[in-house]
Amino acid sequence: MTSIWVTDEEVHNYYKMHNREQDYKELRPGKVAYYDSMIKIDLSKQESMIALPYHPSNAYSIHELQANPEKILREVEQDSIKRFGDKIQIDLVSKIKNGKVVADQGIIAGCAGGTYDNLAEAAAILKDKSTGNDYFTASAYPQSVPVYLAATRSHIAEDLLEAGVAIKPAFCGPCFGAGDVPSNNGLSIRHTTRNFPNREGSKPGQGQISLVALMDARSIAATAVNGGVITAATDIDYTVNYEGYKYDPKVYERRIYNGYGKADNSQELRYGPNIKDWPKMYPMQENMLLELAAVIHDPVTTTDELIPSGETSSYRSNPLKLSEFALSRRVPEYVGISKRIQSEDLERRAGKTPKNVADALAKVGANAENTSFGSCVFANKPGDGSAREQAASCQKVLGGDANICYEYATKRYRSNCINWGLVPFTISKDTPFDYNTGDFVFVPGIREAILSGKEEIDAKVISKDGVKDIHLFFQNLTADEREILADGCLMNYYAAHKK
Length: 499
Fold this sequence. Notes:
The chain has 499 residues and is an alpha/beta fold. Helices cover 31% and strands 17% of the residues.
């Protein structure tokens, strides 16, 4: 799951602009290169697209949507009911006015949307026009302070403001629900990175749902010109006359401390009251006993469900407090169950093995002294969405030792699990997982299996119905990753290997 882009003159100019020309390297295929397949796309024929809730792949051309809006929006409503049941009351079809879909809000933001070129294109479309005086609102967030400064100097910001666009600070809030949170049942069109449920501030468990669709910045500007009627940028004639982006490093040189390569060890970090250390994390023991703290059979579980965005951002430097939100919008009881399991493991380590742990181990002929006890999450396909490592770290902080799934949605989430000492178990897609929260999974000899390079292991599921066999896989682990898991987490690994 990777890609290599040819580094053309545009990339070279970017390095020059940022005074890093010495770091530029040319990347291109060799004179003879073999590929499994090739896809050719004629960009001149590419239509403006819209990705409807609740996934970037739920995509249509804007023309398709506006040609058959009721059928398409009904499908989103039905998907919502499948996901949330009667927790929410959704009415997306009401967004159709005079036969066209009308948005409530347009946002151009973040690392993806708030580029200088995107802002310039949007400003060119909106120049001397208006976003309207009705309910539709539009906001733009430059992707960085230098971009904000350049957009101001080139009159891009001026033209956006005159058209009625609110320009916000360079900050990634809309991507995780900390800025321009849509109203309940509000339809927001955004050039940001994700449109998963919960991501932009929705709380389906509390009856609040925001409906976020992804569009390109130009089409958002075209929509704003039409007062919120979703419009393809290809339907608008405009000309961009702004100068190209000019990077000014002063905003960083005069504000950001750069200690790289010249650290001053006499200086101490200042810790605010909400900055806390990580709790102690233990190395892997000979055997592993897991208790299922959450069993999720949704087709996909996103990182935003594993650790919600929005108000949780206030606790990103406080791992204990942040972990209180883990799975809170999907499995509210998960935190309490995990804390109980963690407490019982501490009792075991103190030589006072709780009865439920002792009883489970007795059924498989194991003892508590060389068998760890931790929580585990089962999900069909976890980790879709952003790369936030808190989705894994919060599980670990709460005493998690492993995940079990059919496959991981992203390589990054799986890597985060490994770095936090969570064994990334998978099971065969032909294996039904019909076990419940509170059941145990016993994995004998896991430490030796990890360190010896094995990729699968026989384990036991202990439930009220008895003891059953289950076969677990932990494939494609590097030598370093195996040591990280054995040490308990990446921090322990670094501590063990420091010179």
